[in-house]
Amino acid sequence: MQFNFNCEQILGCNNEGFAILEGSFPKAVKPGHTLYVNEILDSMGYLSSKVKNIYNQKAQCLNTVITSSQKFFLSNHRIFMKARDNSVIGYIKVGTKKLFVRDHLANYYEITPLCVLDFYVHDSQQRGGHGKVNK
Question: Which CATH code is given to the segment(s) 7-125?
Answer without folding.
Answer: 3.40.630.30
